[in-house]
Design goal:
About 70% of the residues lie in helices and about 0% in strands. The chain has about 200 residues and is mainly α.
Length: about 200
């Protein structure tokens, strides 16, 4: 219990220092959250340099809008929301965000069995990265960030049914990709056994 209270008071002090435009506090926030926020931005953008630019812009917004943080929720959650919005803004500017028929490649994909235990987290993230931009964006917002379809629709300027459709297609395509990965993995294991 003591750790939680000390963490909370440190966070409150940090936010107070940010509101005074303290550069040391800004540096501390950047050092503490930049790795996670870069990963978040990269999940949407899939380009390291662009994701880093978006993350930096996001931190600039965090520092300039710190007066809008009201301490009701988590500070990291507030930063995450800014980073998600910055990432979506970047995708909008690049005109890479959703249309209902973004990609026909997943329209008729049957549902496949769930992934084997052999697929690790990084491999799954790599597969998610290969999804078309619209599918990946909705999948990230829904499955990873926890937004509801109505919120996603509002954030992306699409209908709720389009959000649901994009998620369904993303899942179907991801399941197909996982099945292909599993088949390749099994072939590799069989080859290695035969080589011994």
């Amino acid at each position: 219990m003591g750790k939680i209270l000390s963490l909370f008071s440190q966070e409150a002090q940090l936010v107070k220092a940010l509101k005074k435009e303290d550069s040391k506090a800004q540096r501390q926030v950047y050092d503490k959250y930049s790795t996670r926020m870069l990963g978040l931005c990269f999940r949407y953008i899939c380009d390291e340099m662009a994701a880093e630019d978006v993350m930096v812009e996001g931190f600039l917004k965090v520092f300039s809008k710190i007066d809008q943080f009201n301490s009701d929720g988590s500070f990291e959650g507030w930063i995450r929301r800014i980073m998600v919005n910055e990432s979506l803004g970047y995708l909008r500017k690049q005109k890479r965000i959703l249309e209902d028929n973004l990609s026909d490649e997943a329209n008729n994909i049957p549902d496949y069995v769930q992934a084997d235990q052999n697929l690790d987290t990084q491999e799954l993230l790599d597969l998610i990265e290969r999804l078309p931009t619209g599918y990946r964006t909705v999948f990230n917002l829904y499955a990873i960030e926890g937004y509801a379809h109505i919120e996603i629709a509002e954030m992306l300027g699409i209908s709720e049914s389009t959000s649901k459709s994009q998620l369904h297609r993303a899942r179907a395509l991801l399941q197909k990709m996982v099945l292909e990965w599993e088949n390749d993995f099994k072939k590799k294991v069989e080859y290695e056994k035969a080589s011994c």
